[in-house]
Amino acid sequence: MPGHGRSDLIEQPGAVAHRLDGRLDLTALTLRTDRRGALEWLRERGFIAPRKRGRPATRRIVAIYPYRDAHGTLLYEVVRLEPKDFRVRMPDGKGSWAWRRPETRVPYRLPELLAAELDEPVFIVEGEKDVDALAQLGLVATTNDGGAGKWPAAFADYLAGRRVVAIPDNDIAGERHARQVVASLRGVAATAAVLPLDGLPPKGDVSDWIAAGGTAEQLRHLAERALAEAAVAGPDAPAEGDTRPTIIINDPDRDHHQRSRP
After folding, report:
1. pTM
2. How many domains does the chain have?
3. Which of 69, 206, 207, 213 is most exposed by smallest CB count within 10 Å?
4. How far apart are CA 18 and CA 250, in angstroms?
5. 216 near 177, Cβ under 8 Å?
């Protein structure tokens, strides 16, 4: 597997041109342009960092989220950088990395998803950090790379016959994303439901809910209530862009001002 080491530091523009050496000239020759045009072409496609004003900074890798196929083979990684940014890299077959998105995409933690019992609820959230937080509680969870609005319809096949609960981040993009996920599972999953977590801060997520004291037992209870409501409602759940309100499941064991807040 490619190592990390010095490749964990990604340089910003400054010494970009001379670091590329002959590759920049080759790109310019292929595109029939000059070195400046080749450099801009590489920036536009994410092969090198975009131009920024001010003194160039070095971004540091703070988290790595591996995406593996059904057999556990590493396909690509989503890399979180500081200052905050996300990049995608894949093994280049030569012991290093190619900083690009592969053609084949898979759900995060796919081997764990496939190994789970079919009747185990699967939580779909908006980011890898949230998936890992749920996994630490012993729950089955997954997500897509790229964030909200980037759920591939083809991912539904990995959830065939399963009971799925989409937990949105507390913003409009998160709500739309959760509805998109549920809509893609119609006729595929056994049951699918959207479960907003009440009491979250603006743009808050399930990791915030857990940090506030939420437990696996509480989340399982809320999920079962949401799935039961979805089963009664039938397959006509609101699709992406639907203006009908999403049902918030009330937990009778909690204070009525904290319906799904831990």
Report:
1. 0.71
2. 3
3. 213
4. 60
5. no
- pLDDT value of position 43: 76
C-beta separation of 42 from 35 below 8 A: no
Boundaries of domain holding 67: 59-104
d(C-alpha 231, C-alpha 254), whole Å: 23
The answer as to whether 245 is a domain residue is no
Amino acid of residue 139: L
* 160 HSE (CA, 13 A, CB side): 3
Q: Give the integer Cα–Cα distance in Å for 211 and 249.
A: 21
CA distances from 11 to 24, 26, 28, 168 (A): 16, 21, 21, 34
Provide Rg for the chain, Cα atoms.
21
Among residues 210, 195, 183, the alpha carbon closest in space to that of 121 is found at: 195
User: What confidence tens digit (pLDDT) does each residue in 39-52 have?
Assistant: 777 776 777 766 65
Whole-number pLDDT of residue 231 = 83
204 backbone dihedrals φ, ψ, rounded to 5°:
-70, 165
How far is residue 157's CA from residue 139's CA, in Å, rounded to a whole number?
Answer: 20
**Rounded to the nearest 5°, which phi and psi values hold at 32?**
55, 50
* Same domain? 76 vs 136: no
